[in-house]
Design goal:
The complex is a heterodimer of chains A (266) and B (293).
Chain A: H1 2-24, H2 26-50, H3 53-77, H4 79-86, H5 89-94, H6 99-128, H7 138-165, H8 167-184, H9 196-202, H10 206-219, H11 228-259
Helix pairs in contact in A: 1-6, 2-3, 2-6, 3-6, 3-7, 3-8, 3-10, 4-7, 4-8, 7-8, 7-10, 7-11, 10-11
Chain B: H1 5-8, E1 29-38, E2 47-57, E3 62-67, H2 73-81, E4 88-93, E5 96-97, H3 102-108, E6 109-112, H4 124-134, H5 139-152, H6 169-182, E7 187-191, H7 199-215, E8 219-223, H8 227-233, E9 236-241, E10 244-249, H9 251-262, H10 268-276, H11 280-285
Parallel strand pairs in B: 3-8, 3-9, 6-7, 7-8
Antiparallel strand pairs in B: 1-2, 1-4, 4-5, 9-10
Helix pairs in contact in B: 4-5, 4-6, 5-6, 9-10
Classes of the chains: A mainly alpha (266), B alpha/beta (293).
Chain lengths: 266, 293
């Protein structure tokens, strides 16, 4: 019990630190939020201009929930990058804290931060377009956000390995990976219009299933039973990617310690 | 306000403030034939940064490690910190093997490096709170202790809530020292803690280290380019050159030895030049051997 409390306290250290960073960078946080709102509105206005209410809803869901998924992915993927730029990585690695605890803390804050961002975005867009969510299945949408977060956290952990191997190229690769997820996951269009090889890739992106399920839940009011085909792949991906991410992170840490790559860069 | 180091630390003062003549119990730090190589270029053989170094440091000792830039001092500190893996040899901290009992070792050590690394937008209080939580400390108690340590180092409580980036280099280094002391390490690794500090800040830090020696049983490994500092603080000094330990004595013995064996002036600078084969000016010119990203 003492060990669990200790680990929970250590995990909370990352939540508190990231919250403090968010507070200290509040100006940038406001700027990012304004950019996210403007981006989501711009894309959604395409649906408005066509006069297609279903397309509008589809674009709103894509814009809002992609924002959530990308915020979560980026926050976890940048866990190491921030610490390397600041030079604190060696101190964090020296502390008596398991990597799983570190990653869990970072992931937890990423999810909370993403939820706040998304809620603001959703409220603004709902008011702007007078969206009627009366028959939407909000509960099912929430379930898919949670499950989708879990599988995306696993991929984020794998992405966080890259800056450990090479801080600049690693960060670039995290950015490229995020861009690829945006392209193949059907954020603003159906994955059916993608070339067949891209459709294959889209099947291993958690975002594909999350967005598909949330669209069905919010636009069509689909029940949880109807959404099961989207749920199983997400659960399977969470089951595979999270342990894989933690294992990979441990291997990357060992590699960095062997080659002297934990040193400050930047 | 006068606060002794004894009040700031959790463990009571130890009677053995200087090197014990007869070792009792496990060594505070035992480094046995440690070797570390880096591959910096695929076409060239690896650079040996630490080459078969063996050191035994007893509890309560302040051990100085001198050497030119690139001699392996920082690599040695990183090896002991567990930030680098050993290619050969072993490291024990108070009897705990660094590889097999990594978590136990991590709870016993802390480190201050030449660059005070923090989240610079965060305040000292926020940075120290983060460290306290990582080490499982009660945050309220840790804050009280942090305020006391900072006060001892000449930094008032009102500075605790302003971003670190607004502090001078000397102040930042003091916060780094406070972060390390906060966790009550049994073994404290000070890697050039006073490099780049103004004379007053340097004296503050040196006085604090002396207090630690006098009142607390923390064992300290200090790397420095300041020979006067090494002479003032260290019970024993090791000199590294090309990754090898070329000399290891008390400062007095080192000085006597160079005078007796080589006919050089009996100073630590003579010893440094003799056992590193270079001058202090050479030292400033060169960089470290560890590879960049």
């Amino acid at each position: 019990m003492i060990a669990i409390t200790r680990e929970a306290r250590a995990s909370y250290a990352f939540v508190e630190r990231n919250f403090n960073l968010t507070k200290r960078y509040w100006g940038w946080e406001v700027a990012f939020l304004v950019y996210a709102v403007a981006g989501a509105l711009s894309v959604s206005l395409i649906g408005q201009s066509v006069g297609d209410r279903r397309l509008l809803m589809s674009l709103v869901v894509g814009a809002v929930f992609w924002n959530y998924l990308s915020v979560v992915f980026q926050s976890i993927g940048d866990t190491i990058t921030w610490e390397r730029w600041e030079g604190t990585l060696e101190y964090t690695m020296m502390a008596p804290v398991r990597r799983s605890v570190q990653l869990l803390g970072s992931a937890l804050y990423a999810v909370v931060y993403g939820l706040v961002h998304t809620t603001v975005l959703l409220i603004v867009l709902a008011l702007f377009f007078s969206l009627d969510l009366g028959h939407a299945n909000l509960g099912a949408a929430a379930i898919f956000m949670v499950v989708g977060s879990a599988s995306l956290i696993g991929i984020g952990m794998l992405a966080a390995i890259l800056p450990m191997m090479s801080v600049e190229r690693g960060s670039q690769m995290v950015f490229v990976l995020q861009s690829c997820l945006l392209l193949v996951s059907g954020v603003y269009y159906s994955t059916e219009i993608l070339p067949s090889w891209m459709q294959l890739i889209s099947r291993i992106s958690p975002a594909t299933y999350v967005l598909d399920a949330i669209r069905k839940a919010l636009i069509d009011g689909a029940s949880a039973d109807q959404l099961l085909p989207d749920l199983w792949p997400l659960l399977a991906m969470a089951f595979v990617f999270i342990p894989l991410g933690m294992w990979g992170f441990g291997r990357a840490e060992h590699y960095a310690k062997r080659t002297g790559k934990l040193k400050r860069v930047g | 306000m006068s606060i002794s180091v004894q009040e700031l630390t959790q463990t009571p003062a130890a009677s053995q403030s200087i090197v014990q003549s007869v070792p009792v119990g496990p060594a505070a730090l035992l480094v046995d034939h440690a070797t570390k190589r880096f591959k910096v270029d695929r076409r060239k053989p690896p650079v040996v940064a630490v080459d078969d170094v063996s050191i035994r440091i007893e509890r309560g000792e302040i051990y100085g490690l001198l050497g030119a830039n690139g001699s392996g001092k920082s690599t040695f500190i990183r090896l002991v910190s567990g930030l680098l893996t050993l290619d050969a040899g072993r490291v024990e901290v108070f009897g705990h093997d660094l590889v097999r009992e990594e978590m136990a070792v991590k709870r016993l050590i802390n480190r201050v490096s030449v660059d005070a690394a923090f989240f610079k937008k965060l305040s000292p209080a926020e940075n120290l709170s983060f460290a306290a939580r990582l080490y499982g400390l009660d945050t309220r108690e840790a804050h009280r202790k942090a305020v006391a340590i900072m006060a001892r180092l000449g930094i008032g409580e009102k500075r605790m809530s302003r971003p670190v980036e607004q502090m001078s280099r000397g102040m930042q280094q003091k916060v780094a020292i406070a972060r390390a002391i906060l966790t009550s390490p049994m073994l404290l690794l000070l890697d050039e803690p006073t490099t780049g500090l103004d004379p007053r800040s340097k004296l503050d830090v040196q006085a604090f280290v002396e207090e630690l020696r006098a009142d607390h049983d923390t064992t300290i490994v200090l790397t420095t380019h300041d020979l006067a500092e090494a002479e003032r603080l260290c019970g024993r000094i090791g000199i590294l050159a090309g990754g090898r330990l070329t000399a290891e004595e008390t400062p007095e013995c080192l000085k006597s030895r160079v005078a007796f064996e080589y006919g050089l002036p009996p100073t630590l600078e003579s010893a440094f030049m003799q056992y590193t084969g270079r001058s202090l000016d050479d030292d400033i010119e060169e960089g470290e051997a560890e590879p960049a990203d």
